[in-house]
Write a sequence for this structure.
């Protein structure tokens, strides 16, 4: 009996010791700077010009840069100590950083990136994972994790990252800040360690849409132009089906905000799966090269495969020699992605180039100069730190399917926070045609406040999600009916209009459209 009691006290003691040890570890994980910075420094702007000249446009703003941007006198770390060990301090500063400093902003430090800036998770075991200020138990997203955290924690007004396959968009979504991926090629890549040259884009984080706009205009060196309102805002219905939270928590916010600013007539619905299947024929050719002609896979999923293939191929072309000579110890997940066996032929590379060209043409044609495509930024809420969810096939497929649209086409995209769901940040993304960066930034500045108001209203709504979403679903059915009508598929059009009427029987347009289809069917 005494022995049992002694054993019980031993177990209780061990349990208590374990709790105390875990508490100490948890306290250590949240650093004063949330683990965002790899190095503090200071690059000061030039003196202000004498009156009557205007002051520098970025006066009184400070910023940080991801540790892939060269700064004279500092070693660019690229997320790995072995890279630091084998490289000399930079002899120049990246032109992008200089442009912002000369514009009046102060650079205050370099921030953590994922190992070799390759992942979208934000976990770096070499320098520790930055703490997500919006959800401390969740991953911050990568590769530009530290830059997003620095903005989310209010350490800087804005920051720079690199977006290859979501390196800015995912951290922005997971940390609840704005993330801007400009059109590919419009911002200089000089003085930046490349990941995948055909996909890499300098990206921008901010909390305030007005700061995003100010910095964006300087970063892109855009001339003054008259602001234009969008004439069409297209919701990609099939992309919203990938969401793992209620669809209307995101789509209804955009619909309500659009109606407030521009009217309901601007709203359209699009099925990107069908659109890309018809407009990007090289996708099927790429897949036939890989899987012997089986074409059951969706076009959006194919895009994800192409983007990951390109990233891996171009990364290895650039860095394989260094990896083979230095043999750095890499995180197993990063190593598995980089070293995945693939037989690459010249024909496959040519097909990928064709896909990029066709995708840009397809989206430019869909959006023209005055259209915005709306998709979820991420299918999932930010996973918990250490979760195996990030390695699941569904997670990878859904996330990269959404991210590859802008990465492959080179179009510009903005990630916008929409409050919280289950105590995690929620976001949506706006995409404009390649070169439509100013139009996109203007639209964000116009809609941002109402998006936040509508997000708060939808989050607090006591109506069941299905009830809130019925009208939206009716509009989706109507748009499908309209497409079937254009294609002269009268019976199919009647079916869609009937579905819309069942969902929302008070809309006269649905009845008149169905009547028109019946007339055509009877001819």
């Amino acid at each position: 009996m005494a022995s049992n009691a002694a054993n019980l006290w031993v177990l209780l003691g061990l349990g208590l010791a374990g709790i105390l040890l875990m508490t100490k570890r948890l306290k250590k994980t949240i650093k004063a700077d949330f683990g965002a910075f790899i190095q503090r420094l200071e690059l000061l702007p030039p003196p202000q010009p004498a009156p009557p000249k205007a002051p520098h446009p970025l006066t009184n703003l400070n910023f940080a840069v991801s540790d892939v941007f060269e700064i004279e006198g500092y070693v660019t770390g690229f997320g790995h100590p072995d890279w630091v060990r084998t490289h000399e301090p930079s002899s120049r500063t990246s032109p992008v950083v200089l442009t912002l400093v000369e514009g009046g902003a102060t650079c205050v430090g370099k921030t953590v990136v994922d190992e070799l800036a390759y992942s979208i998770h934000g976990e770096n075991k070499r320098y520790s994972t930055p703490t997500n200020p919006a959800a401390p138990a969740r991953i911050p997203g990568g590769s530009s994790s530290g830059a997003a955290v620095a903005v989310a924690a209010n350490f800087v007004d804005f920051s720079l990252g690199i977006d290859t396959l979501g390196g800015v968009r995912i951290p922005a979504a997971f940390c609840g800040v704005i993330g801007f991926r400009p059109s590919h090629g419009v911002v200089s890549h000089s003085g930046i360690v490349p990941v995948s040259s055909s996909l890499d884009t300098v990206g921008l984080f901010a909390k305030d849409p007005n700061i995003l706009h100010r910095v964006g205009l300087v970063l892109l060196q855009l001339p003054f132009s008259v602001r234009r309102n969008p004439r069409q805002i297209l919701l990609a219905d099939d992309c919203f089906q990938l969401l793992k939270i209620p669809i209307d928590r995101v789509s209804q916010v955009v619909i309500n905000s659009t109606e407030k600013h521009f009217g309901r007539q601007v709203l359209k619905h699009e099925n990107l799966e069908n659109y890309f299947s018809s407009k990007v024929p090289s996708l099927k050719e790429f897949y036939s090269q890989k899987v012997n002609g089986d074409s059951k896979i969706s076009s959006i999923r194919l895009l994800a495969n192409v983007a990951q293939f390109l990233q891996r191929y171009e990364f290895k072309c650039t860095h394989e020699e260094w990896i083979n000579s230095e043999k750095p110890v890499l995180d197993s997940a990063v190593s598995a992605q980089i070293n995945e066996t693939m037989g690459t032929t010249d024909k496959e590379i040519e097909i990928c180039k064709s896909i990029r060209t066709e995708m840009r043409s397809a989206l430019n044609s869909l959006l023209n100069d005055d259209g915005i495509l709306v998709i979820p930024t991420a299918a999932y809420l930010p996973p918990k730190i250490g979760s195996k969810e990030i390695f699941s096939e569904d997670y990878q497929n859904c996330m990269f399917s959404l991210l590859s649209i802008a990465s492959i086409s080179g179009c510009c995209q903005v990630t916008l926070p929409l409050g919280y769901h289950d105590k995690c940040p929620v976001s949506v993304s706006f995409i404009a045609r390649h070169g439509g960066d100013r139009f996109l930034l203007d639209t964000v500045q116009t809609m941002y406040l109402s998006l936040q108001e509508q997000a708060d209203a939808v989050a607090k709504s006591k109506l069941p999600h299905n009830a809130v979403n019925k009208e939206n679903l009716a509009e989706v059915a109507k748009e499908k009916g309209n497409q079937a009508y254009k294609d002269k598929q009268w019976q199919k059009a009647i079916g869609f209009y009937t579905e819309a009427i069942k969902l929302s029987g008070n809309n006269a347009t649905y009845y008149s459209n169905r009547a028109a289809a019946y007339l055509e069917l009877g001819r």
Observations:
- The CA atoms of residues 79 and 115 lie 4 Å apart.
- The two ends are 95 Å apart (CA to CA).
- Residues 2-29 form the longest helix (28 residues).
- Confidence is low (pLDDT under 50) at residues 19-28.
